[in-house]
Amino acid sequence: MEITVFNEKIDRSSFKNLCLFLNQDNPVLPQQLSNKSKELIGEIIEQTDFRAKKGKILRIPVHKAEFNNIYLAGLGEERKMKEDTFRSVSGEFTRVLKSDRLEDVVIMFQPVMDPNFITAVTEGLLLGCYTFDKYRTSMEEEPFHIQKIALAAGQQEDIDKARKIAEAQNFARDLANEPGNVIDPVSLSNKAMDLADSLGLECDIWDEKRIQDENMLALWNVGKGSEVPPRFIHLSYKPEEKPVKKVVIVGKGVTFDSGGLNIKPGEHMRDMKGDKTGACNALGIIKGAADLALPLEVHVVIAAAENMPGGNSYRPDDIIMARNGKTIEIDNTDAEGRVTLADSLSFSCELEPDIIIDLATLTGACVIALGNYTAGLFSNADNVAGQFIEVSDKTGERFWKLPLDDEKLRENIKSKIADVLNTGGRAGGAITAAMFLQEFVKENINWIHLDIAGVDNYKKPFSYYPGGASGYGVRTCLAYLAGFQDQ
Questions:
Q1: Which of 96, 130, 152 is the last residue before a domain boundary?
Q2: Is 264 among the catalytic positions?
Q3: Are 140 and 167 found together in one domain?
C-alpha cells in the first residue's frame, strides 16, 4: 500500500474516495473542500446525527461532488485525544475500506495537526490492514488490497519513518503467526540469518554442540527432548558513527511449548506456537533499528528451543547449571521459558550493554493480573521503568510496572539444593518469574523485563489489531531506543 502526502487540487484529484477525521466537540470541515462538498457533508451530518464519537465511521455515497464516497471518521472528544487515538481510528478505517473494496482514499484532518499524529495515522493504516492468510487455498472472495492512501497533512519524511516502524511490527507478526511445523529452532535461526543478510547485520548461530561447549546448559536441557535441536541466535546492528549506547534485546524463543514432561492439557497447548513471540518481536526490533539507522549498537539474543516430552527430556527435580554458573532446580518443566532466558541474559551481560530489554510470553499469572490489553513490566531501575512507560503512553501499548522488592515472595524461588528454583507457586507468579530472571542479570546493568503473555495474540480484530499475532512491544521498544539519541 502506497502512502503519500496529498498535493493535488481537490477538483482535479485522481483519488475517488475521501475520509474526514473529525473531532466530536467541534467538527470543522477542512478548507480544501469545495463549498458544494461542505454543504453536502453538513447536510448529511445533520440528517444522520453523526457525533464523531471515537471509532464511529460513516460512509456517504456521493454523486454530485468531487468524490464517489465520503467517509466521516470520529476521533472523540478533543481533550481525550492522544497519538494513539489517530492510530486506532486509522486501523479501524482500513478494515472498513477493505470491506467496501475501495482501492484509494484521501484522508483530511481538521486544522492544526500535530506532526506526531500523522506518523500515528500512517502506523495505524499499515498495522490495521495487515493480514496473515498465506495458508488459505480457497476463499469466498479474492484477497483485496488497498492501493493508495494520501494524507492531506504532514511531510513524506515522517510518513516514510512511520512505515519502517509499522513494517517492523508486521514482520514480527508474520513470524509469530507461523505454526510450529514451519518455525522450529532451526528454521527460526535460518530466518534470522536471512534477515541479517538483507540488512547487513552480523549474525552468529550456535548449533547443539556449540551450545553445550559454551556452557549454555539451561538452553540445552530445555531443548534436548525434541527431535529438532535447539539453536542460539545472536544478531548485531552497528551504526556507521560511534554508537551513543549499546542495547541488548532478548527474546524468548520457545517455538512450541507442550509443557514437556509436565505436559499441558490440550486446551492450554493450543496456540503455543505463540511462545516464540518474544523472539519474533526482538527480530522485528532490530529490523526497525537498522531501517531507521538508529545511532545505537543493538544486539538481539535468542535461545530457541522446542519444549517437548520424550525419553531425553529434562525432568522435574533435575539440577541444571546456567551459563553464569548458577544452578537451577527444576520444579516444573512447563516453566521452561525462564530457564532458556537464564542463559540468554547471562550471555547478554557479557556484552556489557547499557541496558537489556527482554520480551517473553512468560506467565499466565500476568494475564490473570493485568488482562489481555496490558503487559507486565519489571525493572531493576525505577527511572528506566518510568521512562519506558512514558514512551508507551504515546505508542498506545500499555505496560504496568509490577514490583521486584517483595523479599518474602522472593523466598518462594529459594531452593534447598540449588541456587534457585524455577517456579515460585501460583501466588504472585509473574513476580517470582521476574525475580528468577533477575538472578541472571548483573546488578550494574539496567534491565527491563516485559511479560507479554496476555497481549501477544488477539482472537478478534479491534483498533489496529486485525487478529492473530499482535507484535506488541515492537513500536514501544523502537520509540524508547530512538529517544537515546536525544539524551
A1: 152
A2: yes
A3: no
Q: Cell digits for 136?
A: 488459505
Indicate the pLDDT class of residue 361, thresholds 50, 70 and 90: very high
The residue assigned the cell 483498533 is: 463
Q: For residue 355, what are the β-bridge partners?
A: 247, 446
Both 216 and 322 in one domain: the answer is yes
Torsion of CA 166, 169, 173, 175, to 10 degrees: 120
Decide if pLDDT at 115 tops 80.
no
For residues 11 and 53, membership in a common domain is answered with: yes
Share of the chain above pLDDT 90, in %: 81
- The overall pTM is greater than 0.90: yes
Residues 126 and 265 in one domain: no
**By residue range, what is the domain housing residue 124?**
2-152
CATH of the domain at 59: 3.40.220.10
Residue 33 belongs to a domain: yes
Q: Which of 338, 398, 410, 475 is catalytic?
A: 338
Q: What angle do CA 231, 235, 241 make, to 5 degrees?
A: 170
Q: Is residue 334 part of a domain?
A: yes
Which amino acid, residue 269?
A: M
Q: What is the pLDDT of residue 486?
A: 66
Whether 329 shows a pLDDT value over 90: the answer reads yes
**In this structure, what C-alpha cell is assigned to residue 283?**
527480530
Q: What is the pLDDT of residue 111?
A: 62
Contact 277, 271 (CB under 8 A): no
Distance CA 172, CA 174 (A): 5
| Together in a domain, 131 and 222 | no
Helix (H, G, I), strand (E, B) or coil at 191: helix
Same domain, 140 and 82: yes
Which of the following is catalytic: 264, 326, 401, 442?
264
Q: Are residues 18 and 99 in the same domain?
A: yes
Average pLDDT in the chain: 94
Look at residues 152, 184, 199 and tell me which one is the last residue of a structural domain: 152
pLDDT at 112 over 60: no
Q: Is residue 158 part of a domain?
A: no
Least confident of 50-64, 242-256, 279-293, 314-328: 50-64
The x, y and z cell numbers of residue 275, run together, are 511462545
Under 8 Å CB-to-CB from 258, ≥6 apart: which residues?
264, 269, 272, 306, 307, 308, 309
Alpha-carbon span 120 to 252, nearest angstrom:
28
Give the C-alpha separation, 370 to 480, whole Å. Answer: 22
In a domain, 308, yes or no: yes
The single-letter DSSP state of residue 24 is S
Confidence of residue 65 (pLDDT cuts 50, 70, 90): low
| Residue 7: how many other CB atoms lie within 10 Å | 8
Residue 156: pLDDT band by 50, 70, 90 thresholds?
Answer: very high
